[in-house]
Design brief:
- This protein is of the alpha+beta class and 97 residues long.
- It has one domain.
- Helix content is 51%, strand content 12%.
- The protein has a two-stranded antiparallel ribbon.
- β1 and β2 form a beta hairpin.
- It is globular and about 30 Å long.
- The N and C termini lie far apart (30 Å).
- The structure holds zinc ion.
């Protein structure tokens, strides 16, 4: 469910608006830094999807939730959340600022 079928873009609902987020664009942002881990792609997708589903909380809030075990079905760590949110800034969050 809610799986990005082509892996290039996926919709984000925010304030009743639908944003099509282009993963390639997010990668560009990331590549301007250093692509540190190749295996972060799927983790990044998980983190960002979780981030959307929770209504775009700050990464600190997401880490707190993970530390408290609030998301037991999620196989990501607080450290990964921090890294992903740094490397893959959430576009709606950037635009909302
Ligand atoms: Zn966001």
């Amino acid at each position: 469910m809610n799986k990005p079928s082509n892996g290039h873009s996926f919709p984000i609902l925010r304030d009743g608006l639908k944003w099509m987020i282009d993963l390639e664009k997010l990668k560009e942002i990331k590549i301007k830094r250093k692509p540190i881990y190749c295996n972060t792609a799927s983790v990044a997708t998980q983190v960002l999807r979780l981030h959307e589903r929770m209504g775009h909380p700050a990464s600190e809030a997401m880490c707190t939730a993970i530390d408290f075990g609030a998301w037991k079905n999620v196989k990501i760590t607080a450290e990964q959340v921090h890294r992903v949110m740094k490397q893959n800034p959430c576009l709606p969050c950037i635009l909302a600022k």
